[in-house]
Write a structure and sequence with these properties.
The chain is of the alpha+beta class. 21% of the residues lie in helices and 38% in strands. The protein contains three helices and eight strands. It has an eight-stranded mixed beta sheet with strand order 2-3-4-1-5-8-7-6. The structure holds zinc ion (ZN).
């Protein structure tokens, strides 16, 4: 089951400048984390129950660097929280969506994630995200 919007991923060139922009708007960055598997640095900015995730490349061959090169800064993906990721992935495949990740992989913030290809979702890079269970911390 899809339970809510988990976060909105925004590709930025400069993490510190972007954090500062949101701070000036009254939103505080909660944490910064590096995700080596995706070659990104991620800043988490909670807005109510949803997070803005600012994504900056940590290496020139990062997918985020390539994204910015092609399309500029901006909203890069939308993450939907799910209760059971393998089950939702199977369901997505069943209804004909193209999976970028056939199996879940580790994302930022202790989550398991998998992406759906934007060519099969009307142009939106959708992430299915099983957030870390806070009871397990
Ligand atoms: Zn994400």
């Amino acid at each position: 089951m899809i339970t809510k919007i988990s976060h909105i991923g925004i590709a930025v060139k400069n993490l510190e400048e972007s954090i500062e922009l949101y701070r000036r708007m009254g939103l505080e960055c909660e944490a910064i984390e590096e995700v080596p598997s995706q070659k990104v640095k991620v800043a988490f900015i909670p807005v109510g129950d949803v997070r803005i995730e600012l994504l900056a490349a940590s290496s020139p061959d990062s997918p985020i660097a390539k994204y910015i090169e092609k399309r500029g800064e901006g909203i890069q993906h939308l993450a939907l929280a799910v209760d059971d990721l393998p089950k939702e992935l199977a369901k997505a495949e069943d209804i004909g969506l193209r999976l970028i990740d056939k199996t879940p992989r580790p994302g930022a913030h202790g989550a398991s994630i998998a992406f759906l290809h934007p060519k099969s979702t009307h142009g939106v890079l959708l992430e299915l995200c099983k957030e870390r269970d806070h009871n397990e911390e």
